[in-house]
Design goal:
It is a single chain. The chain is α/β, with parallel strands linked by helices and about 280 residues long. It has one domain (about 25-275): Aldolase class I (TIM Barrel). It has 13 helices and 10 strands. The protein has helices at about 5, 40-50, 70-80, 105-110, 120-125, 130-145, 155-160, 165-175, 185-190, 205-225, 225-230, 245-250, 265-275, and strands at about 5-10, 20, 25-30, 60-65, 85-90, 115-120, 145-150, 190-195, 235-240, 255-260. An 8-stranded parallel beta barrel has the order 3-4-5-6-7-8-9-10, surrounded by 6 helices. A two-stranded antiparallel ribbon has the order 1-2. Helix 4 links the parallel strand 5 (about 85-90) and strand 6. Helix 2 packs across helix 13 and helix 8 packs across helix 10 (about 205-225). The chain is globular, with a radius of gyration of 18 Å. Bound molecules: phosphoenolpyruvate. The site of phosphoenolpyruvate has 14 residues, from strand 10. The site of phosphoenolpyruvate (PEP) has 14 residues, from strand 10.
Length: about 280
């Protein structure tokens, strides 16, 4: 990442000051969704690990396979002494008990997860996850020492309604997710801007659209928690990111990485995303 990328006009405060923003470690996450049996997951994890060189460590790189594959993928990474990190795609907020089918934060900790996606639009849309649920998950994960990757993003109708409704929608999701969360918890979180109309569609937001929303997110975090916290939080873009388009997002000052779905299932393509943020 170049000095030019880091030297920019702050979007969160001191609106006109030109200063060097402390470098946030870029982060690239692969959301495997409901893909890969355990055998297939081991093959993919091994393939990614084989392509992942030591000096890529400057970019924190996180594999998020299905729950059932976590342990096997963890074993691959451990055997390879890999710097690749492990993340989950969801969690339930209770510690234990009669919650058939659910997975607790402690279970994710024990298997080695450092991150967990929450509020993905597919969880919200297909499984009825509410803003309140997202907030409970964020709080439970932070208490367990796992960094939440909080997904926010508008649908096509909201985007078409204009800039203001889009910004208000995302601000509402963000406020709800951080309800009751302190500054240190916020600083450990990652926020993923994922416009629903761009997920799995091959249609990406323009880098300028992604930057505009991420600047707004950082600004809201600054208002709520202060400048230092806002500068610490990593913001990523997700929505049909591919090796062919990732370079445009890298240029954007408030984008610290990406969350990929489709491209995360192909080791060379995924590694290209990582390399773009080096
Ligand atoms: C995602 O699932 O979060 C995602 C961004 O998917 P895709 O890259 O396939 O659009």
């Amino acid at each position: 990442m170049s000095e030019t990328r880091r030297r920019h006009t702050s979007t969160a405060s001191s609106a006109t000051a030109d200063f060097v923003v402390p470098r946030r470690r870029p982060i690239v996450l692969g959301n495997w969704k409901m893909n890969k049996t355990t055998t297939q997951a081991v093959v993919l994890a091994q393939d990614i690990s084989n392509h992942y060189y030591r000096d890529y460590d400057r970019v924190e790189t996180v594999l998020c396979p299905p729950f059932i594959d976590l342990k096997s993928v963890a074993n691959v990474l451990e055997f390879d002494r890999s710097a690749l990190r492990l993340g989950a795609q969801d969690v339930y907020w209770e510690e234990s008990g009669a919650y058939t089918g659910a997975i607790s934060p402690a279970m994710l900790v024990e298997v080695g997860c450092a991150y967990c996606i929450v509020g993905h639009s597919e969880r919200r849309g297909l499984f009825g996850e509410t803003d309140r649920d997202v907030n409970r998950k964020v709080q439970a994960l932070l208490s367990a020492g796992i960094s939440p990757v909080i997904c926010v993003g508008e649908g096509a109708a909201t985007r078409e309604a204009g800039e203001r409704p889009t910004q208000e929608f995302i601000a509402g999701q963000l406020e709800a997710a951080f309800e009751g969360v302190g500054a240190s918890g916020a600083a450990r979180s990652v926020v993923a801007y994922e416009p629903i109309w761009a997920i799995g569609t091959g249609r990406t937001a323009t880098p300028e659209q992604a930057q505009e929303i991420c600047a707004q997110i950082r600004g809201r975090i600054s208002e709520r928690y202060g400048h230092a916290t806002a500068q610490a939080v990593r913001l990523v873009y997700g929505g049909s990111v591919k090796p062919e388009n990732v370079g445009f997002f890298v240029q954007m000052p408030d984008l610290d990485g990406c969350l990929a779905g489709g491209a995360a299932l192909d080791a060379p393509a995924f590694i290209e995303l990582v390399k773009a943020f080096l």
